Amino acid sequence: MTDPQxxxxxxxxxxxxxxxxxxxxxxTTVNEALALVDILLNPVIEATVSTPPTTPTxxxxxxxxxxxxxxxxxxxxxxxxxxxxxxxxxxxxxGMSAHDTEHDCTIRFTDAWSRVIAPAPPSGGTVVxxxxxxxxxxxxxxxxxxxIFSSP
Length: 152
Prior knowledge:
Structural class: alpha/beta
Radius of gyration: 21 Å
């Protein structure tokens, strides 16, 4: 006798819903998947907040802060996007990048969301070589943290 096969109901990377053969109302599943893809394809984040915005605009997304409240409760670190159907919460995956409009920079998810902050430029002093080497070492370290190239 053959064992019954079990089929996944969602994709492995972002948990997008999958269709089943003979499924009724396929448009619901497809539309939900498209709404999630629209958010994840080129994510743009407005800010990191712990409290949901009072008047969110459809299509805008935020990162839920470390102490979420209201409808954000239980979703710390996730992407919260406002859609026609209300809030959609998406769990980030390692290596994911998004544009942070609040700081006008790219943020990246490894074990948490992070952004690279530029080092302070060298200032004053008579021995510029020491300051220049320190700044270059910091720049190289920050570029590695940003995923521009691997760390040594």
